[in-house]
Write a structure and sequence with these properties.
This protein is α+β, with helices and mostly antiparallel strands. The protein contains 12 helices and 9 strands. The protein has a 6-stranded mixed beta sheet, with helices on one face. Strands 1-3-8 form a 3-stranded antiparallel beta sheet. It starts with a helix and ends with a strand.
Length: 426
């Protein structure tokens, strides 16, 4: 049952009460009151037709105002003891049926008008028009009819509210059950996807390493310049594919695995990252420098931080300015309160402004000739967010790029270590 049907039922209750009252008043020879009852009956019938046929916003106002004025006028010409004022209570409650929970103004105006009509009756002692001799003596039958009509109207209103609340709770429960089911299905799909990623990356990496070993054997054999260039191209393509597999694995690991804090000597970690890239670009020397301004051992997720530094250093090396005679990449680390501040900077070509706006997006490549997967910086950002940190990039096109990272850390209860700063060319 919707609001419109309930309002029609309430109007039907009121019309029935008016009809019964008209019959009783005719029986009591109160012709004037009986005629007034018939007028009210006709008016209520008209309101039912209006409510049934019209969907305009003014209809609830017309119904509430009409019923309030009917009760005000009728209550002023019959004795108070007839109990007509009892109908003000269900009429006031019907405000919450006529207007939705968002229509606050309608509820305020409708409720205010109903209360004003009732208070006007009380202030005038139910004699707004003076002592009209239409009906002088109280009538117990009229009181009974009005009391029953008021009770039935209240019953319908609260039954509607209770039913609406039940339907809302049932709907919420169904949505919660559906969400729980989808969550379980999604967890299952994620687990299957994780297993697929790890299995596929392992299955792909094994033949790649085999092919790479075969290329190394071929490179030891005498070959002309053309064959050497082909083998070099093959090695590069295999390295690119292996890097892409590593990116996919790193992304899946970062999304699935929880944080695992462990003691980390940052000097050693940076040196390990540098060694990973030491022999990638033998034809062009590039200086790798680091500066660690503290000696404490830190507690943080080593695997994720290693992934972040590897990606940033690899990008800095890959895109550095080859024609510049003093190409370099710098990693600077310092402690700022409870945060580790890392700076990875290079003096390469910089990043164009249009690329800076999108460089952290998944699969976005600012330079199609780079051969990368477009996942590197996306994984960096996701890993930093997983660590509870933040990242900011600064770049001047033609001069170089800097990546600032802040990661919350704790200091391990160990003795400080000797400075292991590393600087050199690869």
């Amino acid at each position: 049952m919707n609001n419109q049907h309930l309002i029609n039922r309430l109007l039907l209750v009121a019309a029935s009460a008016a009809g019964l009252q008209a019959v009783w008043d005719f029986y009591q020879s109160s012709v004037a009151i009986a005629l007034l009852d018939l007028v009210i009956l006709l008016w209520l019938s008209g309101l039912m037709v209006l409510n049934q046929l019209s969907r305009r916003s003014f209809v609830p106002y017309c119904i509430l105002a009409s019923l309030s004025i009917i009760l005000l006028v009728t209550g002023s010409i019959i004795p108070k003891e007839n109990g007509l004022h009892l109908l003000f209570l269900p009429l006031l409650c019907s405000v919450f049926i006529c207007f939705s929970y968002k229509q606050h103004l309608g509820k305020i105006l409708g409720g205010g008008f109903i209360l004003s009509c009732y208070l006007l009756l009380e202030v005038t002692d139910f004699r707004l028009f003076g002592n009209l001799p239409l009906l002088e003596e109280p009538d117990n039958i009229s009181f009974t009819v009005n009391f029953i009509a008021s009770g039935v109207a209240l019953f319908l209103i609260f039954s509607f509210i209770t039913h609406a609340n039940y339907k809302a709770e049932k709907h919420l429960q169904e949505m919660a059950d559906e969400a729980q089911q989808r969550s379980e299905e999604l967890s299952k799909v994620n687990e299957e996807l994780d297993r697929f990623v790890y299995s596929t990356s392992h299955d792909l990496r094994a033949p790649l390493l085999s092919v790479l070993g075969l290329i190394q054997l071929m490179e030891k054999k005498p070959a002309d310049e053309t064959m050497q260039s082909y083998m070099k191209m093959m090695r590069k393509r295999i390295s690119n594919l292996e890097a892409f597999i590593n990116d996919i694995t790193a992304y899946a690991r970062n999304a699935r695995l929880p944080l695992q804090a462990e003691p980390v000597v940052l000097q050693e970690l940076i040196e390990e990252v540098f060694n990973n890239h030491r022999f990638l670009y033998e034809e062009q020397p590039i200086e790798l420098m680091k500066a660690v301004h503290f000696q404490e051992v830190l507690l943080l997720d080593r695997q994720r931080l290693n992934t972040v530094l590897n990606n940033l250093v690899a990008n800095a090396i890959k895109y550095h300015r080859l024609q510049y005679p003093e190409a370099r990449v710098t990693v600077d680390a310092s402690l700022e309160g409870d945060e580790l501040h890392l700076l990875v900077a290079d003096n390469g070509p910089g990043i164009p402004p249009n690329v800076q706006a999108r460089m952290f997006e998944m699969f976005y490549r600012g330079n199609e000739r780079s051969g990368g997967s477009g996942l590197g910086l996306y994984i960096v950002k996701e890993s930093i967010e997983k660590l509870g940190g933040r990242i900011r990039a600064e770049s001047v096109y033609g001069e170089g790029s800097s990546f600032h990272l802040w990661v919350p850390v704790k200091r391990a209860a160990q003795e400080p270590l000797q400075d292991l700063s590393l600087s050199g060319a690869i």
